[in-house]
Amino acid sequence: MSAGAATAKKQKISVPFDYSKYLRAGKLPHIWCPGCGHGIVLKSLLRAIDKSGLEKDRICMVSGIGCSSRTPGYVDFNTLHTLHGRAVSYATGVKLAKPELKVIVVTGDGDALAIGGNHFIHTCRRNIDMTILVYSNAIYGMTGGQFSPTTPQGSMSTTSRYGNIEPSFDCCELAKASGASFVARGTAYHTQELERILLRSIQHKGTSVVEIIDSCPVYYGRQNKFKSASQMMEMIEKDGTVSVKQADRLPPEKVEGKLLRGILHEAERPEYCEEYQRLIDKVHGK
Amino acid sequence: MAGEKKKRLMQGNEACAEGALYAGCRFYAGYPITPSTEVAEVLSARLPTVGGKFIQMEDEIASISATIGGSLAGLKSMTATSGPGFSLKQEGIGFACMAEVPCVIVNVMRGGPSTGYPTGPSQSDVMQAKWGTHGDHPVIAVTPAYVQEIFSETVRAFNLAEKYRTPVMVLYDEIVGHMREAITIPEAGELEVVDRAKPECPPEEYLPYDQRYEIPPLAPFGEGYRFHVTGLNHKDDGFPTNDPGMIEEGNKRLLRKIENNKEDIWCNEDYYLDDAEVLVFSFGSTARSARFAVRKAREKGIKAGLLRALTLWPFPDKALKDAASRARAVIVPEMNLGQIVEEVQRHVAGPAVEGIHRVDGEPITPAQIIEVIERYA
């Protein structure tokens, strides 16, 4: 790389992004704890939304219950904070009633995969156009640190005092098997990569699912003997994952046990609202 | 002109679907359950013909959730269910109360508890309609008794939902849900159809829960008013609050908007009430037996009368008190083990109050009611 190119790149990065365009005045500070990755993810998301060129009026952000589900309260879109596990069902109603809206669902591992598990798989099956962001920090944060469907076996939580005996879900495999036509994984650590993944997921037509590996230092970290939020990020998000591109080049033993990052699945499948419009047209003899 | 109109033989559940379409319903999300399934079947065929949307969701909770979502996006929305499905929908009904989202929930009542008697009628969800979801909140529930009335009360339910920004329940039982009767479909414009008030202020001034209004206007998502909706206690701008004063005021306004408008929401049928000494208070298909019983009692010279509630919630206490003031007894037949009879007892002082209850999946017969009327004659 020439010196000139490096300078150009540096200059590009140094241009500050104005997040205030997308944040609601007077609604900060947020509720997230120090060291939580949710704010970092939100920044990647807002940059991706900006790059998508979508107007704020056209975006509807829907969430369920939990820490990540508080996101809609801070952003200047049409926002709907619903019930535990039900975000994708409310979102389905919004989207089908008004298909011109871009629906983005913000949910967590407990919200999407436990109490909302049934809604999650059937939303993927319909392939209705929406972007589902599963902030996966392997714990119920808002209720104080109980194990969730993505908590690794053996982990400590306030309801697994002797180590979690339950196997965990692979959110991405679940989404893919259920029929989601875009499935990806990113982390709060890899912010630029996450921004690119989120942009692609927003641009995708159909159900797109992005699992975002994120850390809860307060409730997961402390119970599982992590020294700090940054150590946790490095161990779980950086060293615990490998990009799909790297994984192809690395020997199997370097990939084993690590979560894959990047776009894991992309397929063209009929989208639900378009299919429904075709049905209406058919009824009218068009 | 009315006499020239074509009559159609129609099932109660079909009349519900047709009433919804007449009222402007353009979104339905549901899950199959006996004895309400025909509502979904008819709307799955009819909604696309008017450009509306039908979706069969994965369960009852998803159905009420999508219904609320559809309404927030601006479409008049409905879901229908029965017994166990009504239990599952309660969390969504609570959300719609709290977030003030207009929608209609049809419950074709069947025998319970639990799976109970799916093909048999009951009127045992009337208290669940009132108190089924957690928290303190008012509800509106209408209780049609005839197929024609299922049509018109479904229209009225949509009107009340839109006008008062609240979920409205249409409660009828399996008997009238599956009954076929000749009904006349009203011409467009014949029945009133109400649409929700939308804001007229600039978006930056819009407050979705503006305390200055008894019922604040509701903007649809995606039309320039970017606002926040939550099931948490919230301020007038829709954002959560922990302020005790605001929490109390928000909850009280929910109650007030219904309480202050009861005269508009109430609807009763009076039958031989003017000089009734033995009053029957009834609703739904049981009221058909009650009406017959009252007529037979009159033929025998007994001054019996019927007060039939078409609005069961808010409870028609004023009409009941008025009719009961001239009566020596109030008889309350209902297909449950005693739900509305206790509500009647709460409001009536003086006359004897006696319930007639039946939970065997069979209707309460006129003979059962006549027998009790004669005891108080």
Which helices and strands, and how do they pair?
The complex is a heterodimer of chains A (286) and B (377).
Chain A: H1 3-14, H2 38-52, E1 59-63, E2 78-81, H3 87-97, E3 102-108, H4 109-115, H5 117-126, E4 130-136, H6 171-178, E5 182-187, H7 191-203, E6 207-213, H8 217-221, H9 229-238, E7 241-243, H10 244-249, H11 252-255, E8 259-266, H12 272-283
Parallel strand pairs in A: 1-2, 1-3, 3-4, 4-6, 5-6, 7-8
Antiparallel strand pairs in A: 5-8
Helix pairs in contact in A: 2-7, 4-5, 5-6
Chain B: E1 7-11, H1 12-23, E2 25-30, H2 37-46, E3 53-56, H3 60-72, E4 76-81, H4 83-88, H5 90-99, E5 103-111, E6 117-121, H6 126-131, E7 140-142, H7 147-164, E8 167-173, H8 174-178, E9 180-184, E10 228-230, H9 244-259, H10 262-265, E11 268-271, E12 278-282, H11 286-299, E13 304-309, E14 311-313, H12 317-324, E15 329-334, H13 340-347, E16 352-357, H14 366-375
Parallel strand pairs in B: 2-3, 2-4, 4-5, 5-8, 7-8, 12-13, 12-15, 15-16
Antiparallel strand pairs in B: 1-9, 5-6, 7-14, 11-13
Helix pairs in contact in B: 1-2, 1-7, 3-5, 11-14
